[in-house]
Each structure stands twice: as C-alpha cells, then as structure tokens.
Design a protein that fits this description.
single chain; about 350 residues; mainly alpha; Rossmann fold; two-stranded parallel sheet; elongated; binds tryptophan; nucleotide-binding; ATP binding
Length: about 350
C-alpha cells in the first residue's frame, strides 16, 4: 500500500479537485493544457483527482460502453501516473466507488433551479456530440453539473481547475454551496474555478475543419502512451501553420520558437528539418513519461491498488461531508429521533414489571 505522507506544516493546504471522464487515452493537448499544472500543484495543494465514470454514463449508459470502462479507467490512471502524479501526494479515485456522492447529489438537487441547467451550452454541446435530441435528453445529462457539484462539495474543495466549458459547472457548485451555507449551516468552502491553459495545439493529419484542435473525438491526437515511432510518424504529417503552431507550443524558449517559426515561414527551414526538431522536442517531453509508464505497468496490480487506496480515502472524506450535510439539514436528527424512541421502547419492554 502506498504511504501517505503527512504535510509537515500545521496550516492545512487548500484542496484542489479536478479530473476527467474515462473515455479514452489522454493526449499531448491534455499534457500541455492541464496535466503539467496538476503535477506542479501537487505540493501546494491537497489534490483529489476524480476518474468520473458516472459522468460518462450521462451520454453513454449502454452496456457495451460500460464494458469499456475497466480498460479506460485503467488507462487514465496510468496516464496520470506517467505524467508524474504522485499517489503519495494526490488522491486518485473512482467516482462510482464513492456512493455518498449520489446521496449528496440528490440533496443538492433540491437547491438548483432546473432552468439554470437547461440553459447551459456545455450540456447542449454534449447532447449534440452524443446525438441526443432535446426530447430524449436524460435527467442524468441535464443533471451533469449537479453531480459535478456533488464531486466538488463532497471534498469541500476550494480550487477547481477545468476546461473553459466546465467553468459554468463550477459556478453552479459555488452557488449551491453558498445557498446551502445560508439555508442550513456553514458546511462548504466556496469553490473557485480556474480555467486551464488552452494549448494552441492543432491536430495531426490532413487539413480539414476538425484539424484546428487536437481532440479525441476528431481522432487527430498524439497520445501520451504512443511509442516514439508513432509520435514521429504523426509529427511528420504536419505542414504550414499547423507545423508552426506545434513549434510554438512545444519549444519552452519562446525566442527559439519564434525564430524557428519565422525561418519556416520564410522558407529557410524545410518541413523535414522542422519535423526533426519537433520530434526531438516532443520526445524530450514524452520519453520520461514512457519510462514511468513502463515501470507502473510492469508492477502487476499497482495501478489498481493506487485507485483502490485513493477511492477508500475519497469515501472517508465523502461520508464525513455527507454526515455534516445530513446533520445541517435535519435529516440526521430525524433518524436519530426515531432511533431514540425505538430504543427506549425496546428497553422498556425488556424491563420486568
Ligand atoms: N466534467 C469533467 C469533464 O469534462 C469531469 C469532472 C467530473 C470534474 N467531476 C468533476 C472536473 C469535478 C472537475 C471537478 O470531463
């Protein structure tokens, strides 16, 4: 079992929570956009990284899609570990393994106007991608942000780094936290969204409308787990402005990137020569990931152990929060009141008289 090091300072670190739906492997765009900063924030924050499998069910509830989860869940945990997420610092957990989150989601639903959900562009977008029209939109998809609010609030998280489309969901979590605190008791810190850096990384492959952004659904990604030959082969498909966009995104030194881009634009740097430099820069990023990935993969059962440990820890946190919520709302006193009377009756009946 992985040891969890206690923070040496007395002041508790702010909690950070973020994560991904396990729909497939993570790619270079994820690395530059969000994964690198997650790794960097592991020391300054207490990090919770959710593998949001329940959220995948909002658009993919079919049996066959659920059957893909074991593989996708494992892949995403391996991606996180390979980029340098350290399970002794960060809690990686499986959302569906924390049932207290559903309890919390039900209670939070009472405080979220349905009209706020219906007007969200993010939900319309997810429905569109999944080919679901308005008539058939499930309550689960409409309630996607409610479940996300439960994720965030169960951990009493303060900082939520997300992609731009998810900022509105964090806002809903913040509003519901504020309302809850006013109505019942001060249980939740108010979570704040933080927009992840948008990497100006286009997709690989032929030109086309989907080429402007690397994305899984467009099938134009360089995956973190791709072998070196595959990465090189993919990079060699780039030309023109997309090739320059890669140069700008991948060279740490902006002066160097700018000089290269300028040379390429002026025709002084050939595509082939630029490819070789890009391949080198990309390999400098991906080679250490590949090494860590191989080490985690070679250790049979380690990935599962890390996820189980993290999920157990998330359960503890979630139950503690749920308990406070039930107490604040009067549900726990309701139950305790019943128990008290029933207990008294049982005692009285055993009494000889
Ligand atoms: N909605 C996120 C996504 O687009 C995943 C997610 C689920 C999440 N719960 C979260 C992100 C809580 C941040 C906080 O994949």
């Amino acid at each position: 079992m992985s040891e969890r090091s206690e923070p040496s300072t007395t002041a508790p670190k702010a909690r950070l929570l973020t994560g991904d739906r396990p729909t497939g492997p993570l790619h270079l765009g994820h690395l530059l956009g969000s994964l690198q900063s997650r790794v960097a924030m592991q020391d300054s924050h207490e990090c919770f990284l959710i593998v949001a499998d329940l959220h995948t069910l909002t658009t993919r509830p079919e049996r066959e899609r659920i059957a893909e989860l074991p593989r996708n869940v494992r892949a995403i945990v391996l991606d996180l570990l390979s980029v340098g997420i350290d399970p002794s610092k960060s809690t990686i957990y499986l959302q569906s393994g924390v049932p207290a989150v559903y309890d919390l989601a039900i209670l939070l639903q009472m405080l979220i106007p349905a009209s706020h959900l219906r007007s969200l562009a993010s939900i319309a977008q997810m429905a569109k991608i999944a080919g679901v029209d308005d008539e058939r939109m499930s309550l689960g998809l409409l309630g996607y942000p409610v479940l996300q609010a439960a994720d965030i609030l169960m951990a009493r998280a303060q900082l939520i780094p997300v992609g731009g489309d998810n900022l509105a969901h964090v806002e809903i979590a913040r509003e519901v936290a504020q309302l809850f605190n006013e109505m019942y008791a001060d249980v939740f810190p108010l979570p704040e969204g933080q927009a992840s850096r948008v990497p100006m990384l286009p997709g690989i492959g032929p030109d086309g409308p989907a080429a402007s952004k690397m994305s899984k659904s467009a099938g134009n990604t360089i995956n973190l787990g791709d072998p070196a030959e595959v990465v090189a082969q993919k990079l060699r498909t780039l030309s023109g402005s997309r090739l320059r966009a890669f140069i700008d995104a991948l060279f740490d030194d902006p002066a160097q990137a700018e000089a290269m881009s300028a040379e390429h634009r002026a025709g002084q740097l050939s595509d082939a020569a630029a490819h070789e430099q890009l391949i080198q820069a990309t390999e400098a990023l991906l080679a250490p990931l590949r090494e860590r990935r191989a080490a985690f993969e070679a250790d049979d059962g380690l990935i599962e152990e890390i996820l189980v440990d993290g999920t157990i820890r998330a359960r503890e946190v979630a139950y503690a929060t749920l308990q406070q919520v039930r107490e604040a709302m009067g549900l726990e006193p309701l139950w305790k009141g019943l128990i008290d009377v029933a207990e008294r009756r049982a005692l009285a009946r055993k009494k000889p008289y």
